[in-house]
Amino acid sequence: MKKIEAIVRASKFEEVREALSEAEINFFTFYEVKGYGHQKSENRSYRGAIYDIGYIARIKLEIIVSDSFSKKAVKAILISAKTGEKGDGLIMVSNIEEITNIRTELKNGESINN
């Protein structure tokens, strides 16, 4: 089992979601995140307050897949999220030791398909 975490541009999220669906990966968690990378930060002042507009909106996806789907998922994300500019994001893949479905009590591969 693998856990894939990907941080992508919010503007590319729908393309990533569609690419994952085409790769038969239809279940994942996502949320909005903020962070700083290699881009230069930019500040603007509005009515005496300073706002940082130097970040690009991001979405973080967390996907749990069997080993056989790991490469398909990474490839789908790479192709759909890439713009060629700094700030396209990152994909991290890690091993998962055990998964248990709370409702069915099934473990590992069986737990994510039921």
SSE topology sketch:
Layout: E1 2-9, H1 13-22, E2 29-33, E3 43-46, E4 49-52, E5 58-65, H2 67-81, E6 89-95
Antiparallel strand pairs: 1-5, 1-6, 2-5, 3-4
Helix pairs in contact: 1-2
Helix content: 10-25%
Number of domain units:
1
Number of helices: 2
The top level CATH class name? Alpha Beta
SS class: alpha+beta
User: CATH topology, which one?
Assistant: Alpha-Beta Plaits
Number of beta strands? 6
Mean pLDDT: 87
Q: Indicate the low-confidence ranges by residue numbers.
A: none
Instruction: Report how far apart the termini are.
Output: 15 Å
Could you tell me the radius of gyration in angstroms? 17 Å
**Widest β-sheet, arrangement of strands:** 2-5-1-6
CATH architecture designation: 2-Layer Sandwich
Q: Beta-strand level of the residues, as a percent range?
A: 25-35%
- Specify the overall morphology: elongated
Main sheet specs = 4 strands, antiparallel
Instruction: Encode the helix/strand succession as letters.
Output: EHEEEEHE
Concise description?
With 114 residues, the chain is α+β, with helices and mostly antiparallel strands. Helix content is 22%, strand content 32%. The strands form 2 sheets. A 4-stranded antiparallel β-sheet has the order 2-5-1-6, covered by helices on one side. Strands 3-4 form a two-stranded antiparallel ribbon.
